[in-house]
Amino acid sequence: MNNQKKILIVGAGPAGLTAGYILAENGYKVEIIEQNSKYVGGISRTEEFKGFRFDIGGHRFFSKSKEINLLWEKILPKNFRTRDRKSRIFFNKNFFNYPLDLIEVIFKLGIIESAICFFSFLKAKIFPIKKPKSYHDWIYNNFGERLYLNFFKSYTEKVWGLSCDDISADWAAQRIKGLNFKEIIFQSIKKIFFKKNKKKIIKTLINQFKYPDYGPGMMWEAARDKIIDNGSKIEMAVKAIKYLYNKTEKKWHVTIQNKNNDEKVIISDIVICSAPMRDVGMAIYPQLKCLEDVKKLNYRDYITVAVLIDQKKIIDDNWIYIHEEKVKAGRIQNYTAWSSLMAPSTEKSCLGLEYFCNKNDKFWNNSDSDLKKIALEDLKLLKIIDINHIIDFFVVRQEKAYPVYDDNYKDIVEKVSNEIENDYNNFYLVGRNGMHKYNNQDHSMMTSILTVENIIYNKAYNRWNVNEDAQYHESDNISKERALTLDSLRFVPKTKN
Fold it and tell me: What is the DSSP letter of 462?
């Protein structure tokens, strides 16, 4: 394809920046617009306050895909550190390692409760739900009802604000595929008697991952700088509010708006879009036939309260899941366990209390000062730090952090994607929110890699197959034809003859 064609990329998260980086490396001039006024990276950005850095959630750098790892190394050749993973569940005033450890569960739940869990699992194996539709169904089949009630129900409903019976089974199958009660027993026995098999790793069970020195934002800031160095453009504090397709010209007229509400139109041959599918679907003209359906897509919003502490890191967890109803936080990130450089000195540390809510609900509408008080009360209940060492708090609100997998989402996504790709030309939905798929950043990147290959080489790879069929891992098996294509992309290091 002619690399003089105008390409607009909407969103400077992992998907948008991956597309921009590869296109710019291959001689294309692209324009990227980003709604955030300061940070690139989307929810993989790293924010900073008083010398402390913190993620919007934790973002591990782990992928089975060789090309994703190559791309990470190309963008950020240094400044990666390997971290030992530790995460726990706080339940019934006890901390449990996650993934669950059989011996620990028996010890802390007690023999009677553990026996009930075991026989509950046996019952689920004898009388499984044949066509699991909900999250509850899937967990029942794989863990039994008792473990579902103890370790899955409260946290999941806190995260989504929905009954587990109203959450699609796709959510569980995608996020924790390969992990079940039998696997917990097997991994517990292996931990005692055998060395770990590094060739077959369930992503939920990995015990190490890579992480940039100064957080995931460091990766995406490096990508931004390389894109600009290659002659392309990134505009901050700008959002797309209308996508008009001119069938005669076969071009997109995209109306963008800055923070002062000034508008202008960008005319583009190709649009690569990672903005939320619902917003995009409502802003496309001529209007989608499935417009009323796209309006039904739902999202879950998120608030993190960063806690700045004048004390060394005192817990080793990277993150902790909170299953106590009295504690309003759903999860805690321990940023200085990801990297000691997330604090301004080794004598300080930083936690992030994460709250899941819907925009404009009662919790979202709390003032920052009220949220700081809520975080303080949660820390008192958890008893993981001395609150007298707290220096300050900082609040970050993130809209549309998670696409919701409710009963209707799959049919709607299929309708929207089919209509956009069949009735309009050169408009590519990519990434987590663009495709309304709960992708990790490596999956989001892969959707853009396939999109860019289609543009450069006029291929027809199906990016919707990334993470398809609720598979948590992308396949590492690449066809011979595609391997040749990948080798010709400039981001892949050349081997010497």
Answer: -
In one-letter notation, the amino acid at residue 456 is I
- Which domains are present in the chain? 7-41+214-297+407-488 (3.50.50.60), 87-202 (no CATH), 299-403 (3.90.660.20)
CB 217 within 8 A of CB 40: yes
pLDDT at 399: 96
Q: Which residue has the tokens 């989307």?
A: 42
CA distances for 478 relative to 299, 405, 485, angstroms: 33, 29, 10
Is 98 in contact with 321 (CB distance < 8 Å)? yes
Determine the pLDDT at residue 262. Answer: 97
Q: Which of 131, 46, 20, 41 is nearest to 338 (CA)?
A: 46
Q: How far is it, in rounded angstroms, from Cα 79 to Cα 69?
A: 14
CB atoms within 10 A of CB 411: 12
Give CA angle at 399 (395, 405), nearest 5°.
Answer: 130
Question: Which tokens hold the place of 384?
Answer: 């993981």
Strand, helix or coil for residue 394:
strand
The sheet that has 270-273: what strands, in order across it? 233-235, 30-33, 7-10, 270-273, 427-429
Task: Determine the Cα–Cα distance for residues 275 and 430; give it in Å rounded to an integer.
Answer: 8
User: What angle is formed at CA 230 by the lines to CA 16 and CA 39, rounded to 5 degrees?
Assistant: 45
Cis preceding-peptide flag for 403 (omega within 30 of 0) = no
Residue type, 448: S
Distance (Å, whole) CA 209 – CA 84: 7
Pick the closest to residue 302 from 120, 9, 42 (CA basis). Answer: 42
Q: How confident is the model at residue 254 (pLDDT cuts 50, 70, 90)?
A: very high
Closest to 275 in 3D by CA, of 91, 178, 399, 362: 399
Helix (H, G, I), strand (E, B) or coil at 132: coil
Q: HSE-up of 79 (CA within 13 Å, CB side)? A: 18
Alpha-carbon distance of 375 to 396, in angstroms, equals: 13
**36-60 b/e with 16+ CB inside 10 Å = b?**
beebbbbbbbbbbeeebbbbbbbbb
pLDDT digits (tens, 9 = 90+) for 210-233: 999 999 999 999 999 999 999 999
Burial (CB < 10 A; 0-12, 13-18, 19+), residue 312, is middle
Residue with tokens 């001529």: 286
pTM above 0.70? yes
For residue 36, give the nearest of 230, 222, 274 by alpha carbon.
Answer: 274
Residue-wise pLDDT tens digits, 175-212:
765 555 566 565 555 555 555 444 444 445 567 899 99
The residues facing 356 across adjacent strands are: 302
Per-residue confidence band for 480, with pLDDT thresholds at 50, 70 and 90? very low
Angle separating helix axes 441-457 and 14-25, nearest 10 degrees: 30
